[in-house]
Amino acid sequence: MTATTKEDFEPPLKLPPADPNDAAPLPFDLVLWRAGVNVAVRSFFRRLFGWRRHRGDATEICRRVIDSCWTGEFFAGSAGHFKQFWTRDLSMCTPALCRLGRRDQVIASLAWGLERFEKAGRITTTIFNRRYPRDVYAYASDSLPMLLFALRAADAGHLIDRHRELLARETTRYFETVFDPELGMARATGYFSGPRDCMTGRSTVFANTMIALLIKLLDGDRQLPNPLAGHDLPALMLRHHWNGEYFRDSLDRDLPSGDANVWPFFFDVFDDPQMKRSAFAMLEARGFTRPVPMRYFERRMPEAELPVPRFFTPNYQGDPSWTQLGPAYLQVLSKVDRPQMEEHRAAMAKLITRDGNYLELYTTEAKPYRGRAPFYYADQGMIWAAMFLDLYS
Fold first, then answer.
1. How many angstroms separate the CA atoms of 115 and 333, rounded?
2. CB-CB contact of 284 with 255 (8 Å)
3. Which of 19, 187, 313, 359 gets the most CB atoms within 10 Å of its CB?
4. Confidence tier at 120 by pLDDT (50, 70, 90)
C-alpha cells in the first residue's frame, strides 16, 4: 500500500473512549479459572526461586528456549505458565520457526490444534489442558487470520483442505462478529482479544490489520468464502488511523501505540518505505524502543485497563517492553535501517544473556515485570525467541 498525504484524507472518525467495564465480562468457566490459578502459583514460585537459566550466548539461549517450548505434540506459548497451545503466538512465529528448520514441528503443532478446534467446532485463542479450546479474554480479531497466515507460511495446504469446512464456517462467523458493514472496519462497539488483550480500544489498528490480512489470504483461496472481497481496508485505515506521520492507536485515541505502528508493516498490509521510516522515527523519538523494543504506550494508561488485569497486573500493557513485539519491529526495521536494528538487537541480546532466558516483558528499568503482590511475575521461555533468533539469519 502506498502512502498519501494528510490533505488527501477525509476527516478521521473520532469516538469517545471505551468503557473498560463493558469490554470483557468476567468468565464463569472452570477451565479459565484453573488457568488463572496456575498462573498465580507458577508466578509465586518464580518470584521466590527465579526462572530457569540456560547457558550460552543469546542465540544459544534462544535455541534452548525453543526446545523447551516443544511438548512432544505442539509448540506451547512458553515453557512457563503460558505452556498451552496459543494460536497467535505459534502463528506469528511460524515463518521464523520454518526458516530455523522447525517446519515439521510447526506442521505437527498446527495439525494438533486444528484437530481440537474441529472437535470443538470453533477456532479459539488457546487450548487448555490439551483438550479445552477457549478464548482469552473474548472472541479474538486475530485467531482465524493468524491461523491461516501460519498455514500459508508453513506451506500446509493439506491441512487447509482437511479442515476446509471448519475454516469456511469460521470465516463467516469472523466477519459477522468483527466487521461493521456501515463503518467498513472493525466494530467500534465490541471488544476483541489480541496480543494487547488487557486494554480497551475502539476499532484498533491491530483489529483492522487482521481483517485486511484475512481478506488478502482469502483472495488467494477460491475454495473459502470471502464476504469482504473487494473491500479496501488499507484505504480506510489511511483515512481514519494514519495522521501523515504515524498510526494512531484506535478510533477513540489520537495517541500512537507501538503495536499500531508495527503489525501493519509486519503483515505487509502496508509496504511503503516512507511510511515505515516516518512511523519508526516516531517510535524511536518518543521512547517506545527503550530500554529495548517495544512498548505498547509511552506511559501507563489505567483508564484503559480491563478491571481484572488492572487489579492483578497494573501497567501490564502500558509502558513495559514486550519481547513479543520487539523482534517483530526489528524484522521490519532491518529493511529500513539495518544499523539501528543491530543496535537494538544487541540491547535485547544483553538482557537475554543476563537473564539466561527469553522473558516475557521488562519494566522501564529493564527489570522483569512484577504484578501486584505475588500474583504475577513475567513468564519465562517464550516461543517468541524464534523471532529474535531469526534476526541473525
1. 36
2. no
3. 359
4. very high
